[in-house]
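$ run holo --ligand "NAP" --emit tokens
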Amino acid sequence: MEKIQMTTPIVEMDGDEMAGILWKEVKRQLVEPFVDLKEEYFDLNIRSRDETEDQVTIDSALATKKYGVAVKCATITANLERMQEFNLKKMYKSPNATIRSILDGTVFRTPILIDGIDPLVKTWKKPITLARHAYGDVYRASEMQIQKPGKVELVYTPEDGEEVRQLVFDFKEPGVASGMHNLDRSIEGFARTCMQYALSIRQDLLFSSKDTISKVYDREFKDIFKRIYLDEFIEKFTAAGIKYEYCLIDDAVSRAIKSRGGYVWATHNYDGDVMSDMLATAYGSNAMMTSVLVSPDGKFEFEAAHGTVRRHYYRYLQGEVVSTNPMALIYTWGGGLEKRGELDGNEKLQRFGRMICEAAANVIEARGIMTADIAKITSKPDPLVVTGHQFIALTRAKLEQDVEKEWPEG
Ligand code: NAP
Ligand code: MG
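-- output --
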């Protein structure tokens, strides 16, 4: 078949360990044979980040700003242990945090629902999409270890005006302290992006917070959401037959478990980090969750929600057969190409992006072939367990048939 043409490059951010290995395989088997790939490639492997002192991460985010669509593989976040393992020059920030803060976007995480992989929560019939605010709070906090007795204060020094001081704690013994911030502009962008996203998929939006405890910080979020909703969205929501609601975070958690799913749940940065893992696990597997970062000016970065799958990688290096699930990586490439096609008015590319995902889903749904993580929880009788590489090869075979059927003339 003649390869599908692209007009605008897609930004590729390569990554680490087992995810990195399967990532390259997805590209080699499911993308390159079918698409005349136009791309800007950035290697976000930990060694490449170390060589460039993390400039490569910044460059990849700037390229995403320029071109509008990126696909990202999972990457190692440096910590003390990883610094020793790779003999790193610095403890680099998490690439995801760097990219998020440059794009100032919102992360939407949606489980991949597959026939035969049933959610642990019996009532869930549709995916819950989790929207995580991607700026500030504890991820940008200034933290301090307190060794001796003394006062910790918040001091605000306005450029024109009098200093304001507020006691955090009067320490009599060792401890820790932290100062966080957020910006109205970022919260407004978050609220708008969530409301636009809910409208685009015609689902209700729930924003959860803890303004009963955090009477200024969390209250600011609650008020901004309400204002943006009343000023800009209420009519559009009513016309679309959907609603916006505010809810305390603990209430939101219990509602999520009792609901049928099928709504967008907006959270603070940290809540989203934690709840997305809960949702992913309850929907089946962390490997069955996709993630897209959307900026207020409409830039998209697609990725898998899972990490680099390090435990599998070490076993793989030992020559063991490992069954790592490539679904979220496949959906990342598929979602990215579909969005690229949509933005460029390239219908063939847009359709092909969806076909990649459908072919992978078909391997599980129609043939009962899957990786070990989901074979453990499937309701299908006698699932056949394969490796990630085998799964990708089976997906390719199906994709070739589908492409042949869709475009018989080439
Ligand atoms: P992880 O890579 O998500 O893996 C945790 C465990 O979840 C795995 O050991 C495996 O369980 C299961 N799992 C995750 N993805 C799977 C897949 N595709 N197929 C099958 N099983 C899967 O999390 P981690 O081990 O905590 O983190 C490893 C590295 O990833 C860290 O360096 C971390 O910084 C990084 N990380 C990156 C991102 C990102 O770039 N977006 C996100 C999270 C973590 P079993 O071992 O029980 O099979
Ligand atoms: Mg997390």
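-- notes --
The chain is about 45% helix and 20% strand.
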